[in-house]
Amino acid sequence: MNKKICFTKSSAESFCIDGGTKGLIYPDHPKGQYTIARINMNGVYPVIGYSINTKCTETIVMLKGEIKIRVDDKVCELKSGDILIILPKTKYRIEGQGEVLDLITPRWDKKQNKIILDSTFTIKI
Questions:
Q1: What are the residue ranges spanned by the domains of the chain?
Q2: What's the predicted TM-score (pTM) here?
Q3: Cβ of 16: how many Cβ atoms within 10 Å?
Q4: What is the CATH architecture of 13-109?
């Protein structure tokens, strides 16, 4: 077996998104089944409107801090130890301050993520 199975922080790619989101995205699962990202949130994502994945499911594990995620018409408040699953074709918006582990299945494909500019889609319903 020649596939790499151990990934250090130095093997991850850093990213930064407007609104206060930054983190590390680790190399994909050796068979492309999933991607893992460690995300630090200090603000809002996306800046305006909502995000929607056309094919990926995101399983968000709250490590520390507190964030609110609007998923369609429901607001979920996450604290350390909480988990939220965002299914494909679901509108979501995140705000708060904290650190999460995001397990993305199948592997992350940036092209399948869409930001919809909608100023009425806010956390406060």
A1: 13-109
A2: 0.90
A3: 10
A4: Sandwich (2.60)
